[in-house]
C-alpha cells in the first residue's frame, strides 16, 4: 500500500540492509556505457549546468569569492551559448558578496551552515548560523548532520536537528550532508538518507569534501535508491548532490547514466541533481572544446576558479 | 625441453605498464620475416593519457635539484649496464650483428652518463648576466619548457631512443615518446629499466604504434609544449609546424643527427628544449658600493 501521509514516521532501525557486493557491482556496471559525439556533448553541457561551484576554505577572501562568481557566469566565453553553473557554494560570511556578484544571472547562492564541516556545535548556534545565511540571501543551505550522535544510535536527535534547521531555512532549500566517508557502511548511509528525507531535506548530499573518501558511485547509488523508495512511499521528490572527488568529465557522465537509470529523466536537471565540485568545471570545458575543435586541450587556456 | 615464457610487450604510462586502451596490436617482424612479438598499437587516447601523466609529473621533476636529476640519469645507465645482455639479444633479433648490438648498447650507456654529467652544468653555460642601465642585476637562465612529445628515430631501436630522451629529461622536462614502430622491442625493455631506476612515474612515457596515425595528435595537443621530430619527411614536418602554431609549441627537428656519432650528443640539444627566462633583481646600494655592471 502506498503511504501518502508525510507525517508518517518509520522505524529507522529497520531501514533496508544494503548488499555491499551487489551495490558495488551494480555501480561498476554504469561505467561500461559508451557515450560519444552529440550524446556526450549534451551530457557535458548538462553536467556544467548541474555544478555547484564551490570554495570552502579558511583562506577565502572577498576577491576569491567574486572571482569564482565571475567564473560561474562566464565559464568559457570562447564558446558561445554555454550554460552557467547551477549555484555557487560558499561560507555564510561570503553569502552577501556572492549574492551581489551573481545577481541577475540565474546562478543560485548556496551556503554551508550548522558549524560546517564538523557540525560540532550546540543546536542554537547551528540554527543561528542557518538563519544568518538565509538572512544574507542564501537560496540554498547545506547543513551537516551530527555524525557522532548518528553513530551512537541517537537517530531522534539527528531527526530533530534536521527538522529544526529545515524550519530555520524558511523558503531556502535544504541540502543535508551525510558525510558518508564517516558513516563507514552502506547500511548506515541508507539509514541516514531515510532520516534526512523524512525530517524534511530537499536534497541529500554525500560529503563535505573535507573527508576522504568523499562521493563514490556506490554510495551515491545507495542514496539514489533511498530517494526512489521514498518517492514511491510518499510521492515527494528529493534531489541528490554527490560532492567531492568528482573531477573528471567521464566520471560525471557515469553519474548521469546512473541517475537516469535509477530515478529517470524527471531528475535530469539542476533542480533535482547537482555536482559539488570545483575542479570538474574546467575538465568538462576542456572536453567540450575538444569536441568543438578536435584538438586535446591544455589547462593553460582555461580560467582558474 | 621446456616452452619459453614469452614477454608481453606493453606500453609505459605514468609509471605503469598498461595495454593500449584501444586493445589493438601489431606483429613486429625482422627482415627475415620472423615474428618477434605482438606489440601494442597505441592510440590517440593512450597519448592523451600519457600527456596527463607527464603533466602531473612535471612540477616535481622540474623542481628537483639539478644534481639529483643527474644522479637519477646515472642510475638509468647503471641499470642498463646490468641488463646489457637482454638488450643485445633483442637487437640481434631485430637484425643487428652481435658486434653492432654490443656497440649500440655501450654507446647508449655512455650517452646517459654523458647527459648525467651535464645535468648541473648546462645552466652555467647557457645563462648570462646582462648589462643594464639601472641598479639591477639582470639574469637570463634556462628553465624547463614543460611536456615534450617525441617521435623517436625510427631506424634505431635503443640508441636513438636514449639519445632523444636524455637531453629532454636532463633539463627538467617530462616527455611522451613514440618508439620506433619497426623495432619496438628495446623501447619496452628500456621502459622497465626506467621503472627500476628512481625515475618518477610519468617523467618518461613510452608508447608503441604507428607514426602516420599518431603524428597529428603528437603535434596538436594543447598541453604539449614542445615536439621532437627526427625524420626527414617534408609533409610531416609541415604538418607538425602547422599544428605547433596552435599553442606555439617549440618544434625541434633533429633530423640531421647521426646518433652513433659523438657529435650528436651535445648540451645544445638540452638547451633547445629550454626556455630562457630573464629576471630583474634590484641591487641594494649599501655604503655607496657600485654594482660594476
Describe this structure in words.
Chain A is of the alpha/beta class and 305 residues long. Chain A has helices spanning 20-29, 37-49, 62-73, 95-102, 123-136, 147-152, 155-169, 186-198, 217-234, 249-262, 280-293; strands spanning 51-54, 87-90, 108-112, 140-144, 173-177, 203-205, 239-241, 275-277. In chain A, helix 7 (155-169) crosses helix 8. Chain A is globular, with a radius of gyration of 19 Å. Chain B is α/β, with parallel strands linked by helices and 293 residues long. Chain B has a single domain, classed as Aldehyde Dehydrogenase, Chain A, domain 1. Helix content of chain B is 42%, strand content 18%. Chain B contains ten helices and ten strands. Chain B has helices at residues 44-63, 66-82, 84-93, 98-118, 122-126, 159-170, 185-195, 211-220, 234-244, 267-272; strands at residues 25-29, 35-40, 128-129, 136-144, 147-151, 174-178, 204-207, 226-229, 250-253, 274-282. Chain B has a five-stranded parallel beta sheet, with helices on both faces. A three-stranded antiparallel beta sheet of chain B has the order 3-4-10. Chain B is globular, with a radius of gyration of 21 Å. The N and C termini of chain B lie far apart (78 Å). The model of chain B has no long low-confidence stretch (mean pLDDT 94).
